[in-house]
Each structure stands twice: as structure tokens, then as C-alpha cells.
Amino acid sequence: MGMLTEFKEFAMRGNVIDLAVGVVIGGAFGKIVTALVDKVIMPPIGLLIGGVDFSKLALVLKAASVDAAGKDVPAVVLAYGEFINAILQFVIVAFAIFMAVKVINKLHKQPEAAPAAPPEPTEDVLLLREIRDALKK
Description:
The chain is mainly α. It is 64% helix and 8% strand.
């Protein structure tokens, strides 16, 4: 029973729950970014450079063929257009996370600095205090 209790304590910690929420939201955010890149950002860029669809850019290393048994052998393709899309998606996600952390840091209340201690009195002031105290006696 000790291990089960320990696991329950571990699983119910705030950090673990926050991490789980972050993973779920991150997955959903990734789908949004993929749609943004594939459907909104890349088509105008492709149009500007001559009607190129980046997701279709590829280098055929070996063309499709039919082997001796009559089976179709698929082409060997280096799909660098999808790689370009993935890089752009990464840049967008990284920038969005950077902006979110920046906002969170700005909203995070900084602890107030402790007031500065008054400076130590000079030797003259200490001497004058001694004289004052001696005259009071």
C-alpha cells in the first residue's frame, strides 16, 4: 500500500497536473500551427515565388517502377517541401512560446525589494551622541 500512496501523492502534485495540461494544450496548439502554416502562410508565399506549393516540393531519387514479379515499387522521394513547412511550424511555435513566457514573466509579481538600511553614522555623529548622553547624566 505504501507504493500506491506514494504514487498518488506524486500524481496529485501540482507540477504533474500542470505538465499534463501543458501537454494536452501543446498538442492542440500544434494542430492549430500546422493548419496555419499549411493553409494560410505557405500558399501566399508559394504564390509570390511563382505558384509553388511547398508541401509538394520533392526530389525524386528513384522513380516508381514495376519489379520482375509485377509488383509496383514506389518511388524514393526526398520531400524537402514538407521539411520547409516543419521548420516554419517550429519557428512559429517557438516564437509563440517565447511571447507567452515573456507575458507570464511580466505578469509574475516581483518581490518588493527590502528598504535599504540607513547608513552607519559617521564618527563625528557617534562622538556627539556620547557627549549628549554624558551631559544627560
